[in-house]
Protein backbone atom coordinates (compact mmCIF):
# COMPACT_ATOMS: atom_id res chain seq x y z
CA UNK A 1 0.00 0.00 0.00
CA UNK A 2 1.64 3.22 -1.16
CA UNK A 3 0.59 6.87 -0.78
CA UNK A 4 -1.64 7.82 -3.67
CA UNK A 5 -3.12 4.33 -4.05
CA UNK A 6 -6.78 4.81 -4.94
CA UNK A 7 -9.43 2.27 -4.08
CA UNK A 8 -12.41 1.54 -6.33
CA UNK A 9 -15.61 3.28 -5.35
CA UNK A 10 -18.27 1.14 -3.73
CA UNK A 11 -21.96 1.94 -3.93
CA UNK A 12 -24.44 1.07 -1.19
CA UNK A 13 -28.21 1.38 -1.66
CA UNK A 14 -30.15 2.51 1.42
CA UNK A 15 -33.94 2.17 1.58
CA UNK A 16 -36.52 2.87 4.24
CA UNK A 17 -36.64 -0.88 4.89
CA UNK A 18 -32.90 -0.76 5.66
CA UNK A 19 -33.55 2.04 8.17
CA UNK A 20 -36.18 -0.07 9.92
CA UNK A 21 -33.79 -3.05 10.11
CA UNK A 22 -30.98 -0.81 11.39
CA UNK A 23 -33.28 0.72 14.02
CA UNK A 24 -34.11 -2.77 15.27
CA UNK A 25 -30.47 -3.81 15.39
CA UNK A 26 -29.20 -0.61 17.01
CA UNK A 27 -32.14 0.24 19.24
CA UNK A 28 -32.28 3.75 17.73
CA UNK A 29 -35.97 4.26 17.03
CA UNK A 30 -35.84 8.05 16.70
CA UNK A 31 -38.78 8.90 14.41
CA UNK A 32 -36.64 11.13 12.17
CA UNK A 33 -35.38 7.82 10.74
CA UNK A 34 -38.84 6.57 9.68
CA UNK A 35 -41.49 9.35 9.84
CA UNK A 36 -41.59 12.14 7.27
CA UNK A 37 -43.93 14.08 9.55
CA UNK A 38 -41.50 13.93 12.47
CA UNK A 39 -38.44 14.60 10.30
CA UNK A 40 -39.92 17.67 8.61
CA UNK A 41 -41.35 18.78 11.96
CA UNK A 42 -37.80 19.25 13.27
CA UNK A 43 -36.62 21.03 10.13
CA UNK A 44 -35.18 18.16 8.11
CA UNK A 45 -36.08 17.81 4.42
CA UNK A 46 -37.32 14.26 5.05
CA UNK A 47 -36.43 10.98 6.72
CA UNK A 48 -32.67 10.61 7.22
CA UNK A 49 -30.46 7.57 7.58
CA UNK A 50 -28.83 6.89 10.93
CA UNK A 51 -25.40 8.53 11.06
CA UNK A 52 -23.84 5.37 12.44
CA UNK A 53 -25.31 3.40 9.53
CA UNK A 54 -23.57 5.69 7.03
CA UNK A 55 -20.34 5.46 9.01
CA UNK A 56 -20.69 1.68 9.11
CA UNK A 57 -21.10 1.49 5.34
CA UNK A 58 -17.93 3.56 4.88
CA UNK A 59 -16.07 1.25 7.26
CA UNK A 60 -17.44 -1.76 5.35
CA UNK A 61 -15.88 -0.36 2.15
CA UNK A 62 -12.53 0.03 3.93
CA UNK A 63 -12.73 -3.53 5.24
CA UNK A 64 -13.33 -4.78 1.71
CA UNK A 65 -10.32 -2.83 0.38
CA UNK A 66 -7.92 -4.08 3.08
CA UNK A 67 -9.03 -7.67 3.42
CA UNK A 68 -11.26 -7.56 6.48
CA UNK A 69 -12.12 -5.73 9.65
CA UNK A 70 -9.11 -7.15 11.52
CA UNK A 71 -6.85 -4.83 9.48
CA UNK A 72 -8.66 -1.68 10.64
CA UNK A 73 -6.83 -0.12 13.59
CA UNK A 74 -8.98 3.01 13.82
CA UNK A 75 -11.82 4.70 11.93
CA UNK A 76 -12.99 8.25 12.53
CA UNK A 77 -15.25 10.80 10.87
CA UNK A 78 -17.57 13.74 11.35
CA UNK A 79 -21.10 13.76 10.00
CA UNK A 80 -21.18 16.49 7.36
CA UNK A 81 -24.64 16.18 5.79
CA UNK A 82 -27.67 13.95 6.34
CA UNK A 83 -28.58 11.14 3.96
CA UNK A 84 -32.17 11.74 2.87
CA UNK A 85 -33.95 8.44 2.16
CA UNK A 86 -37.05 8.79 -0.03
CA UNK A 87 -40.21 6.80 0.65
CA UNK A 88 -39.99 4.55 -2.41
CA UNK A 89 -38.57 1.15 -3.30
CA UNK A 90 -35.33 2.57 -4.74
CA UNK A 91 -34.11 4.59 -1.76
CA UNK A 92 -30.82 6.39 -2.30
CA UNK A 93 -27.20 5.53 -2.93
CA UNK A 94 -24.11 6.18 -0.87
CA UNK A 95 -20.82 6.11 -2.80
CA UNK A 96 -17.61 5.46 -0.84
CA UNK A 97 -14.10 5.89 -2.24
CA UNK A 98 -10.67 6.16 -0.69
CA UNK A 99 -7.03 6.95 -1.20
CA UNK A 100 -3.93 6.13 0.82
CA UNK A 101 -2.85 9.49 2.24
CA UNK A 102 0.34 8.46 4.01
CA UNK A 103 2.28 5.67 5.67
CA UNK A 104 2.74 5.85 9.41
CA UNK A 105 4.99 3.89 11.77
CA UNK A 106 4.69 0.13 12.29
CA UNK A 107 3.20 -0.65 8.87
CA UNK A 108 0.07 1.43 9.38
CA UNK A 109 -1.41 3.38 6.47
CA UNK A 110 -3.88 6.25 6.62
CA UNK A 111 -6.73 6.00 4.13
CA UNK A 112 -8.72 9.15 3.52
CA UNK A 113 -12.31 8.12 2.88
CA UNK A 114 -14.88 10.05 0.86
CA UNK A 115 -18.59 9.26 1.16
CA UNK A 116 -21.21 11.02 -0.93
CA UNK A 117 -24.95 10.85 -1.54
CA UNK A 118 -26.49 12.56 -4.55
CA UNK A 119 -23.10 14.20 -5.17
CA UNK A 120 -23.06 15.75 -1.68
CA UNK A 121 -20.33 14.91 0.83
CA UNK A 122 -21.95 13.17 3.82
CA UNK A 123 -18.89 12.40 5.94
CA UNK A 124 -16.18 14.91 6.78
CA UNK A 125 -12.58 14.22 7.77
CA UNK A 126 -13.19 10.49 7.38
CA UNK A 127 -10.06 8.42 7.77
CA UNK A 128 -9.08 4.87 8.50
CA UNK A 129 -5.82 3.66 9.93
CA UNK A 130 -5.11 0.19 8.59
CA UNK A 131 -2.40 -2.41 8.96
CA UNK A 132 -1.17 -4.70 6.20
CA UNK A 133 -1.57 -4.96 2.45
CA UNK A 134 -4.76 -4.21 0.60
CA UNK A 135 -6.56 -6.66 -1.68
CA UNK A 136 -6.61 -4.08 -4.47
CA UNK A 137 -2.87 -3.82 -5.12
Please characterize this protein's 3D structure.
It is built from three helices and six strands. It is α+β, with helices and mostly antiparallel strands and 137 residues long. It has a single domain (6-131), classed as Hotdog Thioesterase (Thiol Ester Dehydrase, Chain A). Strands 1, 2, 3, 4, 5 and 6 form a six-stranded antiparallel sheet that branches. A hairpin with a 4-residue loop joins strand 3 (92-103) and strand 4. The N and C termini lie close together (7 Å). The model has no long low-confidence stretch (mean pLDDT 95).
Largest sheet: 6 strands, antiparallel
Structural Rg: 16 Å
Query: Would you report the number of β strands?
Result: 6
Task: Determine the fraction of residues in helical runs and give it as a percent range.
Answer: 10-25%
Q: What oligomeric state do these chains adopt?
A: single chain
CATH topology: Thiol Ester Dehydrase, Chain A
Give the low-confidence spans.
none
What portion of residues belong to β-strands? 35-45%
* Tally of individual domains: 1
Q: Can you count the helices?
A: 3
Instruction: Give me the CATH superfamily.
Output: Hotdog Thioesterase
Mean pLDDT over the residues = 95
Q: How would you spell out the order of helices and strands?
A: EHHHEEEEE
Shape: elongated
CATH class: Alpha Beta
Instruction: For the record, give the distance between the C-alpha atoms at the N and C termini, rounded to a whole number.
Output: 7 Å
Structural classification: alpha+beta
Q: Could you say what the CATH architecture is?
A: Roll
